[in-house]
Amino acid sequence: MNSYNFVILTLSGAMETPLSSSKERQPNPNPSSPCPSPYPSPSRLWRPAAQRNLRNQWSKLLSSKNRWLSAASQGRSHATSLVNAHLSRRYMPDMDLGALRDMPGIRQKASEKLSQKQEVCRRGLLSSYEDMVSSVSHMVKASNLMRCFLKDSAVSHLVQFCDHPEDINDPGDGGGFPVFSFLSVPNFEKLAQELVEMFMLELNLKRLLVVELLSITCKESGGRSNSSSWSYELYPGEFDDLRTNSMLSEESCKPHPPRIKDWPSGDPVTWQANQLPSREVLQVYLTTWLADVNIDINRIDDIFGMVEEEMQVKL
C-alpha cells in the first residue's frame, strides 16, 4: 500500500514539473496593463464630427447669404418707392396737373397720400435693413463655429464635441489635416472670413444709405432727427447687433465708418447736411444700393462651389 502511494506521488510529482513549466511560458495576465478599449479613440471620431459640423455651418452661411440677398432686394424696392414718393411730393406745387388742376384741394390730398406712402416705405426700408443686420450676424456666428473641440465626457463612454474648447491644449482643427480631401479647418475658416467680410462692408455702406433716405422726411420739414443720424441707433438694439458683428467702435461706441474695399473710409457725420438731397444725389443712392459694390457675386459662387466640391455634397 505504501509502495502504491509512493508511485502515485512520484508520478504526480513528475507530472507537476512540465505543467508548471508550461504555465511559466504563458504570459501572465497583468491587471495593471492597458486593455484594448471597445470604443473608438477621439482622434478617430474627430474627422466625421468635424465633417458634420462644417456641413452644418456652411449650410447656414448659404442660407444667411440668400436671406441677405432677399432683404437687400426688398430694401431696394422700398428705397425706390420712398424716393419716388418724396420727389413727387416735393415737386407737387409746381407740377402740371392738366385737367385736375382746377379740382379743389387736389394738390393737398395728393401730398397727404404721398406722405403716407413715404412713411410706409420708410418702415419697410428699416425692416429690410434690420433683416440684413440679422443675416450678417448669422454669417459671423457660423464662420466662428468651424472648429470642433473634444467635450469632457468622463461620465459617458460616448465621444462628444462642442463649439468651444474645454481643454486649452485642444485647437479644434485636427492638427491641420484635411477634413474631407484637401482643405483643413483653417482653410475653411479663411474662405468663410472672405465671404463674411464682403457682407460686413456692404452692410456698413447700406447703413449710410438708409440713414440718408430715412432723414428725408425730417429734412422736408426743415428739422433734423437724431433717430436718422449715423451716430444713433436706427432700431432698438441695433448697436448690440453691430457689436456682436465687430462693426461697432469700442472707443466711440459708434458704427465703423463705411468704406469701399481696399479704399480708406471717411467720417459719415461730415457728409450729412440739413438740405434735401437733389434728384441726382438720390439717383446715385439708389444706384449704389443696386450695385452691391463690396460684394463680388462671382467670387461668392466660386467659394460655395469650391466648398461643395470638397465636401462632395450640395449645400
TrEMBL record:
Q: What is this protein called?
A: Uncharacterized protein
Region (Disordered) location: 17-44
Q: Which ranges are annotated Pro residues under compositional bias? A: 28-41
Q: Which organism is it from?
A: Iris pallida
